[in-house]
Structure formats: structure tokens, C-alpha cells
Amino acid sequence: MTIRQRVVPGALLGRVGGVNMVGVYGGLVVGSGIGGVLAQHLGITAPFWFAFVGSAVFVVAIWCQLNHLSSADQQTRPLAVGAVDQAVHRAHQAADRDAGRDPDAGYAHPVLRIPAEMVDAIVAHARADHPDEACGVIAGPGGSNTPTRLIPMTNAERSPTFYRFDSTEQLRLYRELDAADEEVIVVYHSHTATEAYPSRTDISYAGEPQAHYVLVSTREPDSHEFRSYRIVDGDVTEETVEIVPSGDDI
What is the pTM of this model? Predict the structure, then answer.
């Protein structure tokens, strides 16, 4: 579990991830400018001292939050069978509490039920972006586990081996989800030369504990793999994909 996953409530991990991307890439530009000014007026060592003190303050603040949340987590952690099931259950309960729903209403989403037309659209997106990885999300009503709106995203990396949502698109997406009382139900991306299984990078970037992580492999020109996983706290669990014919209820 990363520090960000430990500190941030599960329902907000994706949103914080988007803000983090903007902060990291924007901070590189701003930090370079500040460092140049400090070095010019105060000497070459000034930027290093500035960075050291700022990092120390940040670490102390994070440490205080970790201690506080660790105590709270020990008091509220529910019992479940299996570490992954327990963590997913906690994530859904947190999302239910945030949305004002009953967190003890139960969690029973062992499979991904997805309309056939969405599967076709995801595969078509993956084929269109090949040989680069394609990526996107499917949104649905908060707490419903029902995929209703497919949103293709831009792979900012334009890479055949890695994907990253465009940070501006991601922030816009989460504003839209908040306004519509929706959440991310599915996060999908493609692998262009390997099987449809999460890489170590995919696992480390998985910031939506309530979501299904769909992978499509387009390594074969005449066929594809379509698989779904739960990724929580670094643990990967494959789940059944039930493709619902067009027109049927999910």
C-alpha cells in the first residue's frame, strides 16, 4: 500500500491521483523556475536547502496524518474473508458512507457485468490506437456497480508499453462525475504485445479500489483477450466477465 492509498479515503483516490499528476508535472516547471531565481540571488546551494526544508515539513505532516488514520482504521475495519475481498469491501463501505448510503447493506459484486456494445467499443478503441496502448473509463451511478457511460481517454504517453490519462481530461472527468453523482465503475486499457494481465506499473497506478480493471490484449491481429480484475492494495484478483446482450438489463 502506498502512502497516498493509506492517507486518502478510497472514494477519493482517483480524484487525488488526477490532482497529483497535475501537481507533479506542473511542479517540475514551477520548481525549476524557483530554483533558478534562488540560485541567482542566494547562491547555488540555496535551492537544495529550500528543497530539503520543504521535504522535511511535508514528511512530518504526512507522518502525523498516518498515525491519526492508523488509529481510526483499527477501530472501523470490518471482518471479511481474504485480504483483497476485505479491502474491496472497505472501499465500497467508504463510498457508501460518503454518498449517504447504508454501508452495511452488503457487497456482492463477484463479476463484471458489462453490455456487449461496451465490450465492442473498448476493443474498437484498442484496435484504433494500436500499436499504442488505449485507455478509458466507464462511469455509472454511485454505488451501483452498473456501467452505463463509456468515456475514451487520451493516453498522454502515446506509448506501446505504458498508459497515463491526460491530467486535464482526468480532472474534467471527475468534476463531471461529481456533478452527476456518478463514480468510475471500470478502468480499461490495452496491452499491444503481451497478455491481458496487469503489469507492475498497472498495479502501482491502480487508484480506484471500487473499480473493475479491464485489460484488452491486441497482440493478435485477428483475435483479442478481454479480462477483468480487482486491484486493491497491490493485490490482483481476476474476476468473471459476464457480457450482457444488447437490450438486456445489467
Answer: 0.63
